[in-house]
């Protein structure tokens, strides 16, 4: 998305994304068990069936079996493109905010790491996702004995979180969906305490996508059409006042998703110039930074 996107355009993007992920949240559990994955494997009516499960996608994104085994049923919906909880190196007692928390996947992994004195706040703009995540809290409490995770309805451009109140912000394959990414980074800086840090796993562009792909609604909901160049992500984070910025490309993730034979990827590949493939344009990107002070 361009920085000068109009308010109407931005709201149209949000409504399309909200509708797409609402359908994913409402999809029967059986259909979620066999879909192809990642955030980028999802179209406007949810994720297409395929040979990969949500756990397959999570493993490719960097999660291990021990982490997956601790999750409430249905929390993992195959929407990951990295492992920000590992990137963040969470510590006991910290307050964590997860941008675009979905069914609570990363929140439920972060909770035991910050412990009883810590707090994890998931924020998502899709009511169905928030409801799903809240329903998963009971199973999380039963498994861990902890009551330190909550979910709030809100947009990541306008976080329902106080200034200077958070130790760590994490996000997993979500910022690329925002029509106002500079504002998201400003919000991250606003809510972080001085010295607080951010760990984001997202999709980014190695080079601009053809216009045909950027206009595809399915690609937008699937995290590809809204992705921006790596240099733009760096610019936005620095402009928000964050320092110590590190950006690490993970190209193997996108290449592995193509092997799942996802229909969205097949459509995208067909629209690319001859001799190129999605992994030539899109990469998984780990971003870490901190707020001065």
Give the helix/strand class: alpha/beta
Beta-strand portion reads: 15-25%
* Cα shape: globular
Biggest sheet: strand arrangement: 5-4-3-6-7-9-8
Helix fraction? 40-55%
CATH-level-4 superfamily name: Vaccinia Virus protein VP39
Number of strands: 9
User: What are the secondary-structure elements, in order, as H or E?
Assistant: HHEEHHHEHEHEEHEHHHEHHE
Summarize this structure as a short list of keywords or feature phrases.
alpha/beta; 293 residues; 9 strands; disordered N terminus; Rossmann fold; two-stranded antiparallel ribbon; 7-stranded mixed β-sheet; 13 helices; 20% strand
Describe the structure in your own words:
The chain is α/β, with parallel strands linked by helices and 293 residues long. It is built from 13 helices and nine strands. The strands form two sheets. It has a seven-stranded mixed beta sheet, with helices on both faces. Strands 1-2 form a two-stranded antiparallel sheet. A hairpin with a 2-residue loop joins β1 and β2. α1 (7-26) packs across α7 (127-144). The model is unreliable at 1-7 and 30-51 (pLDDT under 50).
